[in-house]
Amino acid sequence: MRTMERLPSWRERIEGFFFAEEVPVALALIRILLPVFMLTMYLPRWRWCRELYSLDGAPSPLADGYGYLNFVPEFSGPVVVGLFTLMLVAFVTSAIGWMTRVSLFLSCVLLTYFSMLDSATSLAKFTVITCHMLLLLAVSPCGSLWSVDAWIKGRRRTNWPGESPVVYQKFSAWPRRLIQLHIALVYFGAAVTKMNTPAFLSGDQLVFWTLTHINFEHPAGEWFSQYPAVLFALGYITLIWEAVFPFAAWKSSFRNFMLPIGAAFHVGTLFTLGLILFPAVMFTSYLAFFDDQDFAWLSQRWRKLSRRHRAMFASITRALPSFSGWQPRPGFAAASGWVWGIAAVVLVGASIELEHWIDPYGLRRPQGPYALTPMDPARVEMMMTASPSLRVEDKFFAIDLGTTTLGGLIVDRRTTFRPGQNLIAQCTLVQPHEDMWIECEIVDEDNRLVRSYGQVATREQFRANFSQYLSPDMAPGKYAVVVRNRRKEVLRRGFTVLGDSVPERVAAN
Amino acid sequence: MPRWVVTTFITCYLSAMGWGIVSHTLKIWNTVHPGMYFLVWDMFCGWSSHEIRFHLVAEGESGAYYDLAPAPWGAFEPFSGLARHHYDSLGNGLYRIANNTLRHTDHEPIRRILVFEETWSKKYNVPDYLWAHRFEEPKDPHRYYWQFMEYTPDGQLVRANPNFLSYHYSQAISDNPRLIGEYQGDRAMYAVRPVALGRRDTASSVRPESPAAY
Predict the structure, then answer these.
(1) What's the DSSP call for residue B113?
(2) Which of A113, A216, A221, A373 could form a disulfide with A210 if both were Cys (CB 3.0 to 4.6 A apart)?
(3) Do residues A489 and B138 touch, judged by C-beta distance below 8 A?
(4) Which of B75, B140, B63, B129 has its CA nearest to residue B101?
(5) Model pLDDT, residue A155
(6) Is the predicted pLDDT of residue A505 greater than 60, yes or no?
């Protein structure tokens, strides 16, 4: 007789989800990488920290924008330099896993503090995501692996997980689970934002985003901006992927699609939007979607590879410095905290002195403080008297010709047509613009009017499509579509009508 | 760590994250506190069609003007050669940046601090080789200048205009005689009876067409 196998209850499933025991490999890797990325962002800011974050500078607190003045305390220059240096020290010691928990807490608190003090250039959503992950790492056992702390406690191992699992200490999975849930909710929130932004779904905002020059160079984005239909399609793919992520990124065959697509998306933002740290932070967070069994599988593959290429790996190993003889001295474990504290204090003190010596504002220069130099009066006059009226040509972006649209965007941009085809002239507009009457004309080679038609473009429109059937009796030759507003020619696009007409059946369609 | 502590932490953390999603989706209390920035994931809030730069200008008592940003000691460029003040899109920190330059430099007494926006259509950010491929018109960028704010030297805001694009959005709406006529004719007015000052019915909201208005 078959016995009925009892299904686990919801409570048991949730317990299994959060409290299953595993080796915190992913958390250790995130702990190593995340502070290093933050270090690349914040180390260059050390030279400017007095100006960016102190009372002796010009902070731009996040809370001011919410109407909470003096929400975050501001300190004098030397105090800020000291705290900023402490944050950098904490990043380094978090990465190497020395006094891991304290370092991660300090990293989290100080990163949050400095981000909130400089909303203009230090605060972004990826710094917020980093703050969340640092908090979750701080309460996790991420320092139990590949860290100075583990080395001091004698848990040093050079082999990978899966090779001899008894060596590795196991902990509950809940910190990794919370990072997973955090990332899933971030994507879901981002999808909600996009759903509430009609201009994103039309592709128009992506066009302008790819043309925005405030991030790093992104030549691929500028190229994509000329193909709004592609951006439109990518926008929808992104939206669907982000909305599905919380349900499909878990350990299953779906994960093998979701994570690579996400990785490709973030690589895409590197080249199309000029984002560098955002992709780096998100790649790091993806590690949380792999458990110790995944890493064991990976290490097995690695060992196979190393056996196959034994000679090459042996030469690499010989070239690397060996630390196998290093052992912590007796008593170092007890002194580790003190050494860390003294090192931090010394570095903080030295940084305050160094920053004083650098004299960022040049107040102690031999020639005295800097003097302001007058501006060119003509330039100031130009700024003060410039007309605010928008030129007509600045209300129009471009005109494209084609025969087929997808989502309202031309997908077959072309300049040659055959009689019997339907010519679509798509006039892309730039907001803000008022309600406009747009006249669209077809002129021949000698600029004689062949056809004229127009339409109203209301102020919320991003584009106006003019559809014109090219009748079979239209003479072959060169023509142009001319867009006029207020009797002024704004855009022109030439096209050629070929001699052979489209078969009647196709034309009828 | 005791299980109940962990369970409490998980519950609190997921509740906070969940509240961020609900608040953002329903647009309820999503900007009520700076802490919401850490719970609301509104990436891609919207990018305008125009590129914007800021100019911080001080007018001295002699009538000379001084550029306050970038400061004489250099500018922090967070990403790609663009000084920090250009990233303050709301302009909340611009006075402090201007004042920081004034505090640390030699200069004549200052009469006022002006903030200008410099704006141009992003279509002119298209590189030349792509422009030649898509456009038949010559690339003729025009930069607009707009006085955004004016401060006294001690930080009093004496003039705050809407930013350049907001001004044009409002112009696009107000360029409608019928709408303006409705706005001027339909607004409720307060009928004030001076003799009744101090009484609860001193002011009452009425519409001009209602009998009470006459």
Answers:
(1) E
(2) A221
(3) no
(4) B75
(5) 52
(6) no
Q: Which residues of B touch A188 (CB under 8 A)?
A: 21, 41
Confirm or reject contact between A382 and chain B (CB < 8 A). Answer: yes
Total CB pairs under 8 A between chain A and B:
260
Indicate the average pLDDT of chain B: 87
Read off the tokens for B65: 């003007």
Helices A10-19 and A174-195 cross at an angle (nearest 10°) of: 100
Contact call for residues A427 and A463 (beta carbons, < 8 A)? yes
**Under an 8 A CB cutoff, do B37 and A123 touch?**
yes
Domains of chain A: 13-156+168-317 (no CATH), 393-508 (2.60.40.1930)
Asked if A67 is an interface residue toward chain B (Cβ–Cβ < 8 A), one would say no
Of the residues B12, B37, B59, B77, the best mutation for testing chain A's interface (the one with the most A CB atoms within 10 Å of its CB) is: B37
Is B210's pLDDT higher than 50?
no
Report residue A124 as tokens: 């972004």
Point out the least confidently predicted range of A55-69, A421-435, A492-506: A492-506
Q: Is A326 exposed, middle or buried (0-12, 13-18, 19+ CB in 10 A)?
A: exposed
How are beta strands A21-22 and A171-172 bridged, if at all? antiparallel
Cross-strand pairs, A466: A425
What values do phi and psi take at A143, rounded to 5?
A: -85, 0
A96 and A148 Cβ atoms separated by less than 8 Å = yes
Which chain B residue's Cα is nearest to A61? B93
Q: Which of A2-11, A99-108, B71-80 has the highest mean pLDDT?
A: A99-108
Query: Residue A509: its pLDDT value, please?
Result: 42
Note whether A209 contacts B: Cβ–Cβ < 8 A.
yes
pLDDT at B148 over 70: yes
> Per-residue pLDDT for B214 more than 60?
no
Residue A25 has pLDDT above 70, yes or no: yes
pLDDT band at B206 (very low <50, low <70, confident <90, very high): very low
DSSP per position, A221-279:
HHHHTT-HHHHHHHHHHHHHHHHHHHHH-STTTTHHHHHHHHHHHHHHHHHHT--SHHH
C-alpha distance from A410 to closest chain B C-alpha (Å): 14
Whether chain B has a CB inside 8 Å of the CB on A431: the answer is: yes
A83 has a pLDDT exceeding 50:
yes
Query: Rounded distance, CA A493 to CA A481, Å?
Result: 5
- Quick check: A275 and A215 in contact, CB under 8 A? yes
Q: Does B83 touch chain A (CB under 8 A)?
A: no
State the ipTM, two decimals: 0.88
- Estimate to the nearest angstrom the gap between the alpha carbon of A153 and the chain centroid: 38
Does the pLDDT value for residue B211 go beyond 50? no
Category of A99 on φ-ψ map: left (φ > 0), alpha (ψ -120 to 50) or beta: left
Amino acid at A214: I
The distance of B129 to chain A (nearest Cα, Å) reads 10
Cβ distance of A432 and B126 shorter than 8 Å: no
**Strand, helix or coil for residue B5:** helix
Q: Which of A95, A42, A52, A37 is nearest to A276 (CA)?
A: A37
pLDDT in tens, A114-146: 999 999 999 999 999 999 999 999 999 999 999
Give the span between the Cα atoms of A35 and A277, in whole angstroms. Answer: 12
Which of A66, A370, A382 is closest, CB to CB, to B31? Answer: A66
As a whole number of angstroms, the distance between CA B99 and CA A314 comes to 61
Q: Is A359 exposed, middle or buried (0-12, 13-18, 19+ CB in 10 A)?
A: exposed
